[in-house]
Amino acid sequence: MRAAVLEAFNQPLVVKQVADPELTPDGVILKLVASGVCRSDLHAIHGKMCMVQNFPHILGHEMSGVVEQVGSNIRNFKKGDRVIVPFTQGDGVCPHCLSGHNNVCDNSQMVGMHFNGGYAEYIHIPNADLNLLHLPENVDFLSAAAMGCRFMTAFHGTVAQGNVRPGEWVAVYGTGGVGLSAIQIAAAAGANVIAVDIADDKLAFAKEMGAVATVNSKEENAPQAIKELTKGGAHLSIDALGIQETCLNSIMSLRKRGRHVQIGLSSNPNGGMTPIPVNLVLGHELQLIGSAGMPIPEFPAMLNMVSQGKVAPGKLITKHIALDDINAAFDEMVSYGGVGVTVITKF
Ligand SMILES: [Zn+2]
Ligand SMILES: [Zn+2]
């Protein structure tokens, strides 16, 4: 099969012919239809926050496709089934998986990190009965690819962790794929969303996704602007980027007893060490909440909303590319150019 291969850190991926994946008894082989290009993979190429241990390796963790082959133990899937692949995969037996939180599994396996991912024609999903989902008939493959990482991460962060409520003010820092998804989801839940970024074209796109107001943090002090717009601060604020400034500004944007949700992964050393104002957290009774991927039990609610047109992850996709053009897509990310999400549709 053709694949984009990481042969060493800090080098462009090499698109070439590689061996087809091998089927295991608990696994499924998928023929991929759409595969999203995500910033996490740019970090991985640079060897940051990266679980890749062996080269050559195939990255890519947000994909949809059709079941091609099933292992002898598989009961939930058959050849020809349309599926979506959640990027956090659980073992199904640890205490967290058993209580419905496979996204924080003790033996968590990340697609495209712990095993070969979706920048290829085919992928093998181990433990597939536990970690694959059927795609509703009226949800297309592109929407599914957008959902596999960024949209579902935003859904869990906004709905389950952030506990968004109708009428609340929600600030979203960063309007990449996760931020734009959070905007759509919070708006669909009836909240008033303020998008924060440093590029006007991205903020204009955020308005199309449902933001009622935008703040360009290059031009104004974002926490102050949000406190003025909301007359006191956001009820919920989401850091969808993960740099020191957005994390801190998100916390500073909250009203008393507000909730900050950390979705953006930090590349700071020592596990993302970031100074925060603990006295403010204490004095204002702020809540700081982490969010990582999304557990399988929350997928049906998201898929129902997509299937009924209440949210549209497909709208985030602004560019379709071929596997051969993958390095150019990462180059654009380095410069934070372009709006929306890029998806490989030609392998
Ligand atoms: Zn991703
Ligand atoms: Zn587990």
Short key terms for the protein model shown above:
globular; about 350 residues; about 30% helix; alpha/beta; Quinone Oxidoreductase, Chain A, domain 1; 2 domains; seven-stranded mixed sheet; binds zinc ion; Rossmann fold; six-stranded parallel sheet
Overall radius of gyration: 20 Å
User: CATH fold name of the largest domain, please?
Assistant: Quinone Oxidoreductase, Chain A, domain 1
Number of helices: 12
Any idea of the CATH class of the largest domain? Alpha Beta
Q: How many runs of DSSP E, i.e. beta strands?
A: 17
Strand-and-helix sequence, N→C?
EEEHEEEHEEHEHEHEHEHEHEHHEHEHE
| Shape call | globular
Question: Terminal Cα separation, in Å?
Answer: 9 Å
> Would you identify the regions where 5 or more consecutive residues have pLDDT less than 50?
none
- Spell out the CATH superfamily of the largest domain: Medium-chain alcohol dehydrogenases, catalytic domain
Largest sheet: 7 strands, mixed
Number of domains: 2
Q: Give the overall average pLDDT.
A: 95
What would you call the quaternary organization?
single chain
Percent of residues in helices: 25-40%
Q: Architecture of the largest domain in CATH?
A: Alpha-Beta Complex
Ligands bound here?
A: zinc ion
Structural class call reads alpha/beta
How much of the residues is beta strand, in percent? Answer: 15-25%
What does this structure look like?
The chain has 347 residues and is α/β, with parallel strands linked by helices. It has two domains: 2-149 and 294-346, Quinone Oxidoreductase, Chain A, domain 1 (Alpha-Beta Complex); 163-290, NAD(P)-binding Rossmann-like Domain (Rossmann fold), CATH 3.40.50.720. Helices cover 30% and strands 25% of the residues. The strands form four sheets. Strands 3, 4, 5, 8, 9, 16 and 17 form a seven-stranded mixed sheet that branches. The chain has a six-stranded parallel sheet with strand order 12-11-10-13-14-15, with helices on both faces. The protein has a two-stranded antiparallel ribbon with strand order 1-2. Helix 8 (244-252) links the parallel strand 13 (234-239) and strand 14 (254-262). The radius of gyration is 20 Å and the shape is globular. The mean pLDDT is 95. The protein binds zinc ion (ZN) (2 copies). The site of one zinc ion has 9 residues, from helix 2. One zinc ion (ZN) binds next to helix 4.
